Structures are given as structure tokens and as C-alpha cells.
Amino acid sequence: MAQQEVQNGESEKAAVAVVFTAVKQQLLVEAPKANDAVAFYKAAFGAVELDRTTQPKRKAEQELPLILSAQLQLAGSTIIVADVEANSATTLKTGGSGCVLCLETEDVEAAVAKAVAAGAVAEGHITEGEEGACCGGRVGKLKDPYGFVWLICSPAKKCATAEA
User: For the chain, what is the domain count?
Assistant: First the structure.
């Protein structure tokens, strides 16, 4: 009887092939701020809302339905924005969840200005070269009203060492 070869992550038993089709970042914001966060991401970054799930038990007299989650399309990626109740099993650190999100654009200044106009706070100035993105790109750093940090980057230039 031939012995099966075990390779990275494979078990000796027949494995079922698993294919992942997407990775979606989830931004957790304090309840009930997800409505505001969705509006901010639309205004600041041109996100498009694909889907929304609201709290079915929300009282009719309350002005806005509580979002359980909203799925947004942004620069070819999908992000999920969700309200998190204070007593939820998922907890938030002050100032967001600690993730950094990067958006790539040719016009860093305009993108930063648009986000600031929508309510973000620029952190420092736009940097370039060794201070900026990989291999001399330009980068602006923002913090959105929900505590998430965004890097607005120009496309990275090819490094001279990589071209050689």
C-alpha cells in the first residue's frame, strides 16, 4: 500500500477542495453610526452600496433603521460596514478596530481633499519618496470619523532593483 505524501495543509485523508472567491474587509462602528459611515464612504471615496441588512425589530417611531451590515463596492473591492452594540460579543477599541485601509489613485491631493471635505481628518502632509509609499510613491494619511485610518496612495513606481 502506497503512503500518501502530506504537503502544506493537506491531511492524510482525502481532502475536499476549498476555493475562496473573495476577501471582504469588515469595518465595525459603534451603533448606531453605520448609516453615517456608509454616507461618509460614499461621499469621500465614491463607494457604491450593493446591499443592506437592517434590524427587523427596529421600532417604527425611530427615525433611521439600525444597520446590521451594509456591503459597499470600493475600488474593485467589497467592504462591509456594520453597527456593533456596546453589549455585543464583538468589542471595539477606541478609534476603530486597528486596521489600515489603502486606496490607490493617481490624484492623491484631490482624494485627500474630498475625504476631508466629507469629514475625515488629514494626519500630517502628503509624503513622497522614502517617506511615502513603496518605491517613491505619494501617500496621504487620513482618519475617518469612525476611527479608521486610510492611506491614499499613488500607484507604486517600479523599483530600480526589481527592474535590473
Answer: 2
Compute, in degrees rounded to 10, the torsion defined by CA atoms 119, 125, 128, 134. -50
Residues 111, 83, single domain; the answer is: no
Q: Is the pTM of this model over 0.85?
A: no
* Residue pLDDT, tens place only, 136-161: 478 899 999 998 889 888 876 543 44
Distance CA 62, CA 59 (A): 6
Strand partners, 51: 71
Crossing angle of helices 108-118 and 34-45, rounded to 10°: 150
Locate 137 and state its grid cell. Answer: 510613491
Q: Domain span at residue 36?
A: 23-91
Give the domain CATH number at 30.
Answer: 3.10.180.10
The continuous run of DSSP H or E covering 149 comes out as: strand 149-153
The answer to whether the beta carbons of residues 131 and 140 sit under 8 Å apart is: no
The owner of cell 485523508 is 13
